[in-house]
Amino acid sequence: MKKNILLLALIFLTYFEGISQIVRIKSKGGKSFCGFSIKKGFYYDSKSKNYITKQSTIGDESGLADVVEEIKKALGFDVKINVFIAKDEENCFATIGENGIRLIIADQLFLNKVNRNSKTQWGAISIISHEIGHHIAGFTRRELQIDSELDADYWSGFTLQKLGASKEASIKCMMIFGSDQDSETHPNKNRRAAAILQGWNDGLKGDYDTDRCENCN
Questions:
Q1: What's the CA gap between 64 and 143, in Å, rounded?
Q2: Burial letters for 131-166: b for 16+ Cβ neighbours within 10 Å, e otherwise?
Q3: What pLDDT does 4 receive?
Q4: How does pLDDT run across 28-46, given as a tens digit for each residue?
Q5: Structure-model confidence comparison of residues 59 and 172, the more confident one
Q6: pLDDT by residue (tens digit) across 54-93?
Q7: For the packed helices 123-137 and 64-75, what is the interaxial angle rounded to 10 degrees?
């Protein structure tokens, strides 16, 4: 599995030329949206938006759905997540769509750029793992958005340990793109790196913090 995820990360170099199936996705907005862009870093968006995308499926040229599936397997998270490829969005985000559908939407060329800028093949995986972490932790379970972000960071670290990333690689993307100061919705990068490392250490022990997820047994 560890070798597969690395190979799949490299598949992000492939991009769909032309989108044969156009799908418009409207997120519910509010607390149910977390995204990442190089320009903004990890951010919270309260607005509903439309995105022109193509759905990614297991085995397609993008590898995006395969990466999400491998992350879910590593976490033992057997819940359906619909994966879409965004075109020219410079973004990767998680949201709850209409009818309560769990979504991951990503511009894969942008994810390649993240890997190049962070100088690690784990950069894109850490972002996708963080976004899946929101689906595990529950977008609206916490009163404060900051706590929701720390939950998602925890699952990013847990995932990366299971997939074979070192501690240093697991926090590298956050330390490069995270903010130095707390904002209203996001902790500073040092607090977030600490949550990632907590998840990494728990992954190593083979246990997880039940307070970090929704409906955990």
A1: 31
A2: bbbbbbbbbeebeebbebbbbbbbbbbbbbbbbebe
A3: 55
A4: 655 678 888 777 777 666 6
A5: 172
A6: 888 888 877 889 899 999 998 888 899 999 888 777 888 8
A7: 60
Residues 17/84, Cβ–Cβ less than 8 Å: no
Beta bridge partners of 105: 84, 93
CB distance 149 to 190 below 8 Å: no
Based on C-alpha coordinates, what's the Rg of the chain?
16
* Beta bridge pairs of residue 104: 83, 94
Distance between CA atoms of residues 20 and 31, nearest Å = 32
| Token output for 17 | 């030329």
Nearest-angstrom CA–CA distance, 48 and 30: 8
- For residues 174, 167, 142, 190, the Cα torsion angle rounded to the nearest 10 degrees is -50
Can you tell me the distance from the alpha carbon of 100 to that of 10, in angstroms, rounded to the nearest whole number? 31
